[in-house]
Design goal:
- The chain is α/β, with parallel strands linked by helices.
- The protein contains nine helices and eleven strands.
- The strands form three sheets. Strands 3-2-1-4-5-6-9 form a seven-stranded parallel β-sheet, sandwiched between helices. Strands 7-11 form a two-stranded parallel sheet. A two-stranded antiparallel ribbon has the order 8-10.
- The mean pLDDT is 94.
- It binds NADP nicotinamide-adenine-dinucleotide phosphate (NAP).
- NADP nicotinamide-adenine-dinucleotide phosphate (NAP) binds next to helix 1 and helix 4.
């Protein structure tokens, strides 16, 4: 008799986490999902990610910053997957030390439970955006994971389709601002395609896996595609990089969250961000689905 392997998904209510719950379940795993609010996963996410309430085998309600709610989280677990990310709207988000400690607590539990693999999602091109608080938070944990003695895999995805939704939302207003000329390239990737890579990562050597989508676009092409999906004529106003960088310096003094978001956007347009291609889902179809959902 084959014993069903158990996977814990931390971040199971998020864009990627939901696809990962789905993917592991389809591959025959027993899935334990950690969520803050089970009600949230009863319906699909805003970018089409699945409702997983009836897909997960076990739902644990907990908050990573509340150790009491995490008791026994890794008991009986073979594989831990984490796409945990402090929400931008979370008032505690600036306190990355708190979240680092929380992540450590889960890692400590995984070590005690002797899990066979810990899969963690960080960011792509971490060296180019090493100044961002979120990058430092992720990379601190990656270092902890490498030193833990556990078998691990770190996934480094390019921009998610859920992030490209911002372009779609702006296109709906009929106008978009763009930093620079929009000529740099990237290959965004669908959550379901990343989830397959994550589930494939349970086996093999400890490794870092860089993941992009199947199509490479310039930023301007992505914007134009978003306008077309909305049925609007592209109207894009570009402003120079030096202006964005100057504004960024000022904003850094007042609001770290907005500064992080802007730094990311500014960094993104400075160079190409093309990762090894995985998957088969296309951004054009994603935008078309968003447009249909509005009707
Ligand atoms: N978006 C991108 O383009 C991109 C690209 C590369 C890498 N990444 C990385 O990929 C990871 C996943 O991204 P995503 O877009 O799937 O993120 P997401 O949708 O924001 O999901 C984050 C998950 O973390 C959970 N969470 C936040 N605070 C929590 C807490 N205190 N206790 C328990 N759970 C908590 C969220 O729960 P709630 O639903 O309750 O908030 C959610 O399930 C992130 O680490 C991100 O940095 C993202």
């Amino acid at each position: 008799m084959t014993v069903m392997k158990k996977v814990l998904v931390v971040g199971a209510s998020g864009y990627l986490g939901r696809y990962v719950v789905n993917e592991f379940k389809e591959r025959g795993y027993h899935v334990r999902a950690l969520v803050r609010n089970p009600e949230q996963i009863k319906t699909p996410g805003t970018n089409g990610e699945p409702a997983v309430y009836n897909i997960a085998d076990e739902i644990v309600t907990g908050d990573v910053t509340s150790p009491e709610s995490l008791k026994g989280l890794c008991e009986g677990i073979d594989i831990v997957f984490s796409s945990f990310c402090p929400a931008a709207s979370d008032s505690k988000r600036n306190n990355f030390d708190l979240y680092h400690l929380a992540n450590r607590k889960i890692l400590d539990q995984a070590v005690v439970a002797k899990v066979s693999r810990f899969i963690y999602v960080s960011v792509f091109n971490e060296d180019k955006i090493s100044d961002l608080s979120l990058t430092r938070f992720h990379e601190q944990f990656v270092a902890d994971l490498e030193a833990s003695g556990l078998s691990w895999a770190v996934i480094r995805p390019n921009g998610y389709f859920s992030d490209m939704e911002r372009f779609f939302a702006m296109a709906r207003t009929g106008h978009m601002f763009m930093v620079g000329q929009g000529d740099k390239k990237m290959n965004p990737v669908h959550g379901a395609d990343i989830a397959q890579v994550c589930a494939d990562a349970v086996n093999g050597d400890c490794r870092k896996i860089v993941v992009g989508g199947p199509d490479i676009y310039t930023f301007r092409e992505i914007m134009e595609m978003a306008f077309l999906a909305c049925g609007k004529t592209p109207w894009i106003t570009s402003f120079p990089l030096w202006l964005a960088e100057g504004a960024l310096m000022g904003i850094k003094l007042f609001n770290r969250n907005i500064a992080d978001l802007m730094s990311f956007a500014v960094e993104a347009v400075k160079s190409d961000h093309v990762a090894p291609a995985y998957g088969r889902r296309h951004l054009q179809n994603f935008f078309a689905e968003l447009a249909i959902a509005l009707k």
